[in-house]
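User:
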Amino acid sequence: MSETPQTQTTSNAQVPPQSSGPDLSSAAPAPSGDVTPAPYSGETFTPEPTRSMEWVAFASILLMMAAAFQVILGLTAVFDSGYYLVGENDLLVNVDYTAWGWTHVAIGLIALAAALGLLAGQTWARVTGVAIAVISAIVNLGFIAAYPFWSIMVIALDVLVIYAIIVHGKKVYAV
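Assistant: Predicted structure:
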């Protein structure tokens, strides 16, 4: 095949002909299987969910549950201190139920913010989630005399949250 070069004229300048590239009509067919699209193809990459993502979602839901439990426990302490098994003087930490209740409410609200941040994939939420779960476990240990079952349940949730975030969370954020 012989092609004659053509020139294009725009205004007064001459532009050389554009090459359309090599003729690939007789080339071998593309290999079958997993072919990665070129980065400039306009397609967006959406990673498939992994077990790590599932664990972080699990940790986030558990952290939301623990946050709800903390808020309920705190509001109960603020508005009905007679609900608990022991008086204020029999707690591990000698503090009145109103102060203890507001502490639980604050922990619950911070835990809720961290849980939502975890679902959004925020790194600060991993650090905050672990820190608030540790603080929550310690605070509930101090509150265990007032309501043992509730405190033990929240401590167990906190341990699961810490495990899920620390062991499985790093892999999710590396993508």
